[in-house]
Amino acid sequence: xxxxxxxxxxxxxxxxxxxxxxxxxxxxxxxxxxxxxxxxxxxxxxxxxxxxxxxxxxxxxxxxxxxxxxxxxxxxxxxxxxxxxxxxxxxxxxxxxxxxxxxxxxxxxxxxxxxxxxxxxxxxxxxxxxxxxxxxxxxxxxxxxxxxxxxxxxxxxxxxxxxxxxxxxxxxxxxxxxxxxxxxxxxxxxxxxxxxxxxxxxxxxxxxxxxxxxxxxxxxxxxxxxxxxxxxxxxxxxxxxxxxxxxxxxxxxxxxxxxxxxxxxxxxxxxxxxxxxxxxxxxxxxxxxxxxxxxxxxxxxxxxxxxxxxxxxxxxxxxxxx
Length: 322
What we know:
Helices cover 45% and strands 20% of the residues. By secondary structure, the chain is α/β, with parallel strands linked by helices. Among the domains are: 1-80, Winged helix-like DNA-binding domain superfamily/Winged helix DNA-binding domain (Arc Repressor Mutant, subunit A, Orthogonal Bundle); 162-286, Periplasmic binding protein-like II (D-Maltodextrin-Binding Protein, domain 2). It is globular. The model has no long low-confidence stretch (mean pLDDT 86).
């Protein structure tokens, strides 16, 4: 069983498509298809069910993938342990986060780390928190960065920063006439006098309005439902979209109201913004955490990245839009 075999099967399992996996691996689709067919013939089992679209893992395929992740993680840990003998000249740091967090929060820390340690490879895994928990459990990543509840018996969770949710409403929405003066993106980013004077609103004031919710990510419809239920109502979700960035676009187009995190306001690079309204701390604040496995081997390279990330948070270059 070779590293190439494990890597190719994992790519097909994650992409659920031969063609997409081939593109990811920089090989041709026919060659990858033949490779998987030859491997299945060698093993005497079918790893993939090709009768469904997208293709799915068989029971044997599920087992193969579980062990493939463990084997590759062990190989990576061995390589990192060996690289520690050479100081911080070689090694790999494996970071997991949602696409939203990679784009809006991690770019600065990744660029700063690469400038300081150019020989160390940074492997970025973009996935939702459920997948990141699985990757951590399998040892496939060193850290995950995100928010939510975590099993602290198995995971070490360290708070990095806090993120605040705002009610977002299009300036053309009729409900704005019944709401207090809104906050602009500039108010939030620069903590203007208007921001410092703002009073939280009761989210229940928009309980009859249609909401836009994301299907995936840390701020998905389950998160929206939980916040609204804490305010005594169930939201009427008019549109379910894929990402928090699409929620922003739909709200801006006056297709409903939504909840948006301040990191999107800081780092989204949007030219136009909806109106924002402050919410009470008990429903609006979320911890962004650095999560790793308890008792796992942590290479010098990984420890150095974690330290740099925490330093950037402390001086405000990561979490405050400076």
